[in-house]
Amino acid sequence: MGTVKEAKLEQLEMKREAYQLIINGQRMDSSSGETFTTYNPATGEPVATIAKASKEDAEKAVEAARHAFDKGKWKLFPLNKRARTLNKIASIMRSRFNELVELEILDTGKSLSAAQGQVMQAIEDFEFYAGAIVGHRGAVNNVPGQFQNITEKEPVGVCAQIIPWNYPLMMAAWKVAPAIAVGCSVVVKPATLTPLTAIVLGEICIEAGVPEGVVNVIPGAGSEVGNYLVEHPNVDKVAFTGSTPIGKDIMAKASQTLKRVTLELGGKSPSLVFNDADIDAAVDGSLFGIFYNTGQSCEARSRLYVHEDIYESFMEKFVEKAKKLSLGNPFAKETHIGAIINKGQLDVIDGYVQSAKEEGATIALGGKVANVEGYENGFWYEPTIITGVNHDMKVVKEEIFGPVVVVMPFSDEKEAIRLANDSEYGLGSAIWTTDYARATRVSKQIQAGIVMVNCPFSAFPGTPFGGYKQSGFGRELCIETLDLYTETKSIVSYFGNRPLNPFGV
After folding, report:
1. How is the beta sheet containing 46-51 ordered, strand by strand?
2. 274 Cβ partners below 8 Å, 6+ apart?
3. Which of 12, 56, 189, 461 is spaced 20 to 30 Å from 478 by Cα?
């Protein structure tokens, strides 16, 4: 790490070493006085001390959000005023772009390019929803004669938003922006591993003019604070991004009070490379698809299927290019792959790789914990490519959440589709072909919420993001998301000249 960057980081950490809860527009300590420490996954060193929310704090946050929604003015603001506020949030985020990027890297260990892209998308999310709410409206429906039916969109109420550790700021923006755009109040529970940028986002919302109580941020244990929010009778909706088992538990708990639920869960996404594909483009896109964000992405294309006619030539290029991916200083532009979030996840990843070896698979590249010079106390794993696999193996069936990809050949289009759909998950997928007709046919048959054709990118503001099967339900990042945070009210009116007398008495 260069001396200029070192000095900049030292100033940042010295400037702020402690973060508080945000409840009802105020920073505050936990009611219990408890705190926890976040650590830089790249170095293993502490980053900051965070106030640890308790059930009592969660109750305060829900009460603040409830009061803001029931008695406050935010949902009554004209659309253009709420839109201006969202744009102001985005403007402040832009002015603090470098700070947000640095905090994201310190908290997650991800690479500079990944953090920059994700912070920029978080900013663009607020800008997108500032525009989207202008067109989000009810309808006039066809009804008989002298009747009229109109629908109105009304905010659903208080929303609990549970954020994962792999995309802390971006996932917070995906949830906060549409919710407050339509007039809801939110209680955000960031992951305890990576809470910093979500807390700062809450502070920015207040600075931008969001009224007190509308945005509350309470980092704390999911088993305590998360469950409390999910079960709370004054919470109207839960939005969760995370693992499928926890998503199922949230759905069961939320059902007791019939909360609206949006779940964006796990994935084991396939990538299909056909024999007419641009091999170089498919290699580059497949590298990004699995190794971006260190493979810690729910839609990582971790199952790679390559047509048998080009399998050998593809694999030669794929392995050689993967060898060139660099691990190291997350702040260096030349670094491709960042750190694993913590020791526990590192062990999980290695456990999957070892199970593949035991089941007879071949490690074509990597396959072990990485020793990165200067970052020996961090958590690193080599980019890993596994061949000789079948669909009975754990590494093929289960989500690994790390820089590990399995590769298999296929013989024809029918087999490729069968293999791609042979999963309990259905989040992302990729198709590499120069045949437009094939791309269209296969896209229609893939059981996934996202299909990327000759493209490694899965999400832009405005594109629906969400899955089929056990990858969850609901779509984020798009105009349709606004419907998930609103109720549709149907108003039926009669304007005839004579009073209605249906019973005729």
Report:
1. 18-19, 46-51, 35-39
2. 307, 413, 416, 431, 432, 433, 435, 438
3. 189
Half-sphere exposure of 124 (CA within 13 A, CB side): 13
As a whole number, the mean pLDDT across the chain is 95
Locate 439 and state its tokens: 């791309």
Distance spanning both ends of the chain, measured CA to CA: 88
Determine which one of 159, 184, 205, 298 is catalytic. 298
pTM for the predicted model, two decimal places: 0.94
Burial, 110: exposed, middle or buried (Cβ in 10 Å; 0-12, 13-18, 19+)?
buried
What backbone phi and psi angles, to 5 degrees, belong to 230?
-65, -35
| Closest alpha carbon to 58 in 95, 18, 24 | 24
* pLDDT for residue 145: 86
- Would you say 193 and 340 are in contact if contact means Cβ atoms under 8 Å apart? no
Counting beta carbons within 10 angstroms of the beta carbon of residue 185, is it exposed (0 to 12), middle (13 to 18) or buried (19 or more)?
buried
Could you count the other beta carbons within 10 Å of the beta carbon of residue 80? 11
Burial tier of 231 (Cβ tally within 10 Å: 0-12, 13-18, 19+): middle
Contacts of 258 (CB under 8 A, 6+ apart): none
152 given a catalytic annotation: no
Question: Which residue type sits at 362?
Answer: T
Domains present along the chain, CATH in parentheses:
3-265+471-489 (3.40.605.10), 270-453 (3.40.309.10)
Instruction: Assess whether 373 carries a catalytic annotation.
Output: no
Dist CA 109 CA 10 (whole Å): 16
Beta bridge partners of 51: 35
Q: What is the pLDDT of residue 16?
A: 65
3-state SS, residue 232: coil
On whether the CB atoms of residues 244 and 72 are closer than 8 A, the answer is no
Q: What percent of the chain has pLDDT over 70?
A: 97
Which H helix or E strand runs over 417? helix 413-421
Whole-number Å distance between alpha carbons of 172 and 46: 23
**Distance in angstroms (rounded) separating the CA atoms of residues 306 and 332:** 33
CA distance 457 to 465: 12
Place of tokens 């009210």: 489
Find out whether 202 and 187 touch, Cβ atoms under 8 Å.
no
Q: What is the pLDDT of residue 495?
A: 93
Helix (H) or strand (E) holding 286: helix 279-291
Res 351 pLDDT > 70:
yes
- Residue of 104, 264, 399, 476 with catalytic role: 264
Q: How far, in Å, CA of 160 to CA of 100, rounded?
A: 23
